[in-house]
TrEMBL record:
CDD domains: fungal_TF_MHR (cd12148). GO terms for molecular function: DNA binding; DNA-binding transcription factor activity; zinc ion binding. The keyword Transcription regulation does not apply. PANTHER family: SCFA-RELATED, TRANSCRIPTION FACTOR PDR1. This is Xylanolytic transcriptional activator regulatory domain-containing protein. InterPro entries: AtrR-like, XnlR_reg_dom. GO terms for biological process: DNA-templated transcription. It comes from Aspergillus chevalieri.
Length: 203
């Protein structure tokens, strides 16, 4: 990984280029968790529920992606592009364990990664990842604020922002990728209730 000052710049780039319109995070809380993680001696991704680490790597990858477009970086531009590709590939590789630990961070990963792929040449992947985010959000009750008992104001706001970002992304997808089959077109495709002959027998 790059030095800490470069990581700080990548996170700032993410908030300047991405989070200002998606508002997935409470920035102060995200930065606090980031500082705590950087300051810790043992950073391990072996814990199956350590989705904040994967979320941080995704934020760094997106920050590197958008930093590579600025003209002021010179020779570091290619390094940032390579870093972005490696981090995003690592998140994709770990995607099943990430969504296997359903929490707010898993939803945030789905929102960010799904949106990124949707608008960067892999729309089918983006749709699938956003769909996963919707299901995880439903599993953890992100759409039902009445279920959030005993959470802090910051956690409540983070959950609201995560659900809102997911809902906006979903509505954007629906408006740009409408259903390919209408309900009346599906009528002809229902299974026949009559037994089917197979080798002299009826199924």
């Amino acid at each position: 990984m790059p030095p800490n000052d470069v990581l700080d710049q990548l996170i700032t780039q993410f908030f300047d280029c991405v989070d200002w319109f998606m508002m997935v995070f409470h920035e102060g809380e995200f930065r606090r968790q980031y500082r705590n993680l950087i300051a810790s001696v043992d950073v391990s991704a072996s814990d199956g529920n350590n989705n904040f680490l994967w979320l941080l790597l995704l934020v760094l990858g997106l920050g590197a992606h958008y930093s590579s477009f600025t003209g002021s970086l010179g020779e570091r531009q290619q390094n940032l592009q390579d870093l972005s590709k490696r981090l995003l590939a690592e998140i994709e590789y770990k995607f099943l364990p990430i969504i296997g630990s359903p929490n707010v961070e898993a939803v945030q990963i789905c929102v960010l990664m799904g949106s990124f792929h949707l608008f960067n040449g892999r729309p089918t992947v983006g749709l699938g990842v956003l769909g996963s985010g919707i299901k995880i959000a439903q599993v953890i009750g992100l759409h039902r604020e009445s279920m959030w008992q005993g959470v802090s104001d910051v956690a409540r706001e983070t959950r609201r922002r995560s659900w809102w970002a997911l809902e906006v992304a979903d509505k954007c997808v629906v408006s740009t990728h409408p259903a390919s089959l209408l309900a009346d077109q599906l009528i002809d495709y229902f299974p026949d209730t009559q037994p089917l002959p197979l080798g002299g027998r009826a199924l």
